[in-house]
Amino acid sequence: MSKTYYDPADLRKFGNITEWNEELGTKFFDYYGKVFEEGALSAREKSLIALAVSHVVQCPYCIDAYTKDGLQRGIDKKEMMEAVHVGAAIKSGATLVHGVQMMNKYDKLSM
Amino acid sequence: MALLKSLAARENDLSNPANQLKFLSNGIFKKGELPLFKDKIAETNHFPLKPKKLEILQLNLGYMCNQVCSHCHVDAGPDRKEIMTMETMEQCLEVIRNTGAHTLDLTGGAPEMNPNFRWFVEEASKAGIKDFIVRSNLTIILANKKYHDLPEFFKKHKVHVASSLPFYKRDKTDKQRGEGVFDKSIKALQMLNAVGYAQEGTGLKLDLVYNPSGAFLPTNQQALEQDFKVALKEDFNIDFNSLFAITNLPISRFLEYLIASENYEDYMYALVEAYNPVAVENVMCTNTISISWDGWLYDCDFNQMLGLKVDSKVQHIRDYNEDLLNDRNIIISQHCYGCTAGAGSSCQGTVTE
Predict the structure, then answer these.
(1) Quick one: which of B108, B115, B168 has its CA closest to B133?
(2) A54 in Cβ contact with A45 (< 8 Å)
């Protein structure tokens, strides 16, 4: 039994998910690979978006993967941290904007 | 972090190549988690690995260097005293005059620190070799007044300069190669440009060598070259011809770093996952002979550092025989995964289109 829920070595086994459902697993990895190809956005821009999203969804595997991907692409730590702040700003903004709902409800219930 | 002393001076266990080779065959490879390199290349019938036509003679003029870079596979530094003698140089010149190879590649340490470097370059340049490369760490040009005229000297002998520059920004370069290395490297590149290197119509070639500053693989060489060209031009008005992206091989000080930072297993997995059978066709050991400071012959500079002499009746420059050498089997181990990952890696950069 593993002592923690997350084991960094499990990232290497990601591809194994196809073993239990080859069709869906293969479709996912084909899709994933296609998404990260150079397109209207560069692969470098996509890597930074992926890094920001990795933090927002708090996926430790993704954070490891896209920090390394960024290093390989020559993305520096300033750029990486700015991307993380973009994710954090959206996430905190998404929390705060619900304050409007609270205010609406408060006002509606109050005399 | 850049280090102050070589593994040899620190009497580190890894300064003994046999310990490195043992380490590279144990652990994940012994347990069968990852395939041995010989089994991997056997899948595509590349075992035993054989040489093709000899194209490059690479001479290591000595392990002495003015820098102590943290990734150095030579374990070079100011404390290394191994230097090629004039007698060995003369034996090399004899070979250079008669070789079928079209490229002569001088490396080190800092080859310029060999006291007979200039004499040797003058003599070797008369041999009519098509491409004469000197691998310069750049900072040597500014290290001492006696080296300041190296750009002019290189120009005079039409030497093709290949220079290491880990990144186009200061922090990563200095972290790998030592404090102040970036500024000196930039100044040296500007000096080389000033005498005509990488300038149109001069025919003087200046290439840069990039290797990742950490436990990750290089990305696409062309994309990196483009990033380097734009950044160095905009920030420092520097021109260069090509960028070679080289993968760090898991030996010597880079192996020490991988182990100490607990990146070794992940790095080996990354190399094996990125294994490219097409790269095996063109790995540099198939077209290169590496000659050490004391005249021994190796399949490549990495095998030289691991003490793996060529598997041939001819093992020393004094007995050099190209036909016999071309008939050898190339010696391989798990470090070879470094040259077959992704687009492949060699002293001339990637090995696949």
Answers:
(1) B108
(2) no
pLDDT at site B3: 62
Does the beta-carbon distance from A76 to B224 stay under 8 Å? no
- B residues 161-190 closer than 8 Å to A (CB): 167, 169, 171-172
Query: What pLDDT, on a 0 to 100 scale, did the predictor assign at position B2?
Result: 57
User: Which are the contacts of B312, defined by CB distance < 8 A and separation ≥ 6?
Assistant: B297, B324, B325, B327, B328
Q: Which residues pair with B59 in a beta bridge?
A: B106, B291
- pLDDT of A2 above 70: no
Asked whether the beta carbons of residue A74 and residue B227 sit closer than 8 angstroms, the reply is yes
Cα three-residue angle B133-B138-B143, rounded to 5 degrees: 125
Entry field: residues in chain A: 111
pLDDT tens-place string over residues A63-110: 999 999 999 999 999 999 999 999 999 999 999 999 999 999 999 999
Mean pLDDT score of chain B:
94
- CATH architecture for the domain at B13-339: Alpha-Beta Barrel (3.20)
Residues B65, B293: Cα–Cα separation, whole Å:
13
DSSP secondary structure of B173-222: HHHHH-TTHHHHHHHHHHHHHHTTTT-TTT---EEEEE--SSSS----HH
**pLDDT at site B267:** 97
Residues from chain B that touch A74, judged by Cβ atoms under 8 A, are: 167, 219, 224, 227
Higher-pLDDT residue of A1 and A75 is: A75
Residues B298-315, mean pLDDT to the nearest whole number: 97
Q: Does A98 touch chain B (CB under 8 A)?
A: no
Tell me the C-alpha distance between B248 and B166, whole Å: 11
CA distance B175 to B177: 6
Contact criterion met (CB below 8 Å) for B205 and B197: yes
Q: What is the ipTM of this complex?
A: 0.80
Q: What is the pLDDT of residue B103?
A: 95
Measure B239 CA to nearest chain A CA, in Å: 19
Q: Where are the domains of chain A?
A: 15-109
The answer to whether B271 touches B277, Cβ cutoff 8 Å, is no
Would the CB atoms of A74 and B269 count as touching at under 8 Å? no
Domain boundaries, chain B: 13-339
| One-letter identity of residue B91 | Q
What architecture does CATH give domain A15-109? Up-down Bundle (1.20)
Tell me: pLDDT of B198 over 60.
yes
Contact B185, B163 (CB under 8 A): yes
Cα–Cα dist B165/B295, whole Å: 29
